[in-house]
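Figure-free illustration: sequence to structure, shown twice.
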Amino acid sequence: PERSLGVALVLPSVNSQGMGLHLKEISKVTPAGRHAIVIMDRAGYHLEKELPDYSNLTPVHLPPYSPELNSAEQLWEWLREHDLSNRCFDGYEDIVDACCN
């Protein structure tokens, strides 16, 4: 947050392949000589053994059944309340555009 830098992907589904892509992007924006802690819930695709390992990233898994600790849950709640609810979308691309905006 101090550097006003973030990484996000909008993908058609959630799985270990998408999580691997996200970790790759986080690793790329982590400055040389720094180390990133990636806080994850215990979704199955966060626990996959096939996820890539990066020397500049360490995953930290939240305790089970603790959505209040997961900041992504707050993001999804905000999106549902403001941009994604009570609307009709013309198609998939419109949904992606709403998420990206």
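We now fold a second protein in the same way, so the two outputs can be compared directly.
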Amino acid sequence: MTLVVGKLAPVFHLVDTEKQIITNETIAGQTTLFLFFPFAFTGTCTKELCGVRDDLERYNSMQVRVIGVSVDSIYALAKYKTEQELNFTLASDFNKDMSISFDTMYETFAGWMKGVSKRSAFIIDAKGVIQYVEVLENAGEIPDFDAIHEKLNAMMISK
């Protein structure tokens, strides 16, 4: 099922590096940017997430919560978060439920791995409605952060 703007986000359940549960209910009332990425400790993922780290004040000023999501374990994500000094939430979709329901899963990755999240970005508004969808087939590409910022700015203006 391909997600579309204007529809409610599918039900999801994640665990972050602090072992806190993240669900539709826990993000309700706040705009959230979900950034799915294939794996911690890889070049493109690190470039993307460190860019977000360095620009986090922009998201904070718009009261947008940023959550990075991968199928890595919470333990690997915690080490990665510390090593890269990431200042936003990383959450594990180890069981792949959210990646499947958000239709952001490679059939195969790097020729042989199954069950890896595609690099993608989703904005979910305070009411749980999808406002932005970008799913990349090429893991070497990074989401269009100019388009993401443009959408978030438009959402702020329309409040």
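Summary for the second example: The CA atoms of residues 152 and 158 lie 10 Å apart.
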